[in-house]
Amino acid sequence: MSIRPAGASNVACDTAEASGCLEGRGSCVYKQPLPEPPATEVILSLENVSRRFDGGAGITGVDLELHAGEILGVCGVSGCGKSTLLRLIAGLESPDAGRIHHGFRQMGMVFQDPGLLPWLTARGNVELVLPKGARDRAAAALAEVGLEEAADQYPAQLSGGMRQRVGIARALAGEPDLLLMDEPFASLDYFTSLQLLELVGRRVTERPVGGIFVSHDVREIARLCDRVMVIGGQPGRPVTTLGNPLDAAERQTRPGAMAHFENAILQAIETGSH
Amino acid sequence: MTEPVSTLRRDQQTTQRMRRIPAARRLGGSQIWAPITGIAGLIVTWQLASAWLSAAILPPPTAVANRLFEDLAGTQIWRDTGITLLNVVGSFVLSMIGGVLLGLWAARADFLDRALHPLVVVVESAPTIAWLVLAILWLGQGGGPPILVGVSMALPLVFIATSHGLRQIDTGLLDMARVYRLSALTRLTRILLPSLALTLAGTASGALSVVWRGVIMAEAFASSQGLGPSLWGSYLYGEINEVYAIILWIILLGLALEYGLVHPARRGIERRLRHG
Does the predicted interface ipTM exceed a cut of 0.95? Predict the structure, then answer.
């Protein structure tokens, strides 16, 4: 896929002026078309979903469709309803209006705080969410995130990055076809978050897992997501959806080439917050 | 200006010296000697006071100790102790199970929680003697009233601790349980009960203490067997040395239960739950 913004019928955003344009100009209009959705089944769709809280917070008017093998990023300023959207999809909140259609079989979720039980080992935490006949998958999942030697350690004996890896192993061990991620790397240092981002990206690419990735970090979003929904206002509503100009392989090899996309996301967030 | 600096240096030197002393010696010394000093002070005060007062009011500790040794050489005190311990353990176990189940049930709905709280406060604030009279009225004389009185005193404590503990549970863990659709049994055994264990371990100590007091008092008035009737009977027959010997025995049993059973259990739970 070309990284050059091109005029197309499927225009993602024609208002976000981005500086640092790859064409070498000081600013340009971001006209990257939304990527074609994968030719896979729709695993999640939302129709005009709203959930409001006292004080005006919440989210409203969300329509989206997610295909297997596709990762949608959700970003916006704090309090715009990103986490509420994820909680609605996860079934932790009920919508006030609209409909959510679940087409997936198994869901996994990575929380900002990994939510590990302190009285269970890393292996115990992963096994907890697996059916009785599939407990042996825990060891494989921990090995996949590089924690085979720490499998019998308790969360308090692990670093923050290792605990988050256990959370990711737990989410992936159940072989989900929908993976929800709520700012999973927010409390981690840059290099650890980069490592985990690559791990999640690789796993999602290897298997056709659909993912929704909520983050306030546009670099993380640009590295992992095929599309980005920007939410703004209060209650939050979708402002725009931007397509990633790079495919998954290019994102890993040419991270510097995403500056234009990152700027477009930032511009859209700023526009949406006013 | 020089004084704060020298004070600081002195503090640093003291800190360095402290660091060289093993932690076990710094803490262990006061931990061992402080209670021994307190108990020794009590015995000396008792001995001095008994010299001033009539033996019919306060016999000397040596006389009480001798009487207790005589009792322990016989069989009656062991039979009474067995009956009282059964009543205490029965009341304690019923209170813990009942309080936790009631707390879990109330947590299912705000309405239940709000409805049960005033009832529990009523039970808790009613004087022990009122419960004793009601227990004798409902159950008659025998082993029932001591258990009912013990439960009436301890169950509200356990219920309130459970209710409070459930509100303190990390909501992230509950969210995780819902996302992964963990069964009700798994939630109860893997999340709720371990989360409550620390709170309940602390409450168990208080519950055991009130059960112990309530059961012995209820036995004295409602039963013919156990340490309560022995104590009350000794008082009625004017056997003051026996009265003090039984009180001393009750206190020693209470300490043994607390430090031999409840305390190690609490430490074990803390170690298990706060791994690493």
Answer: no
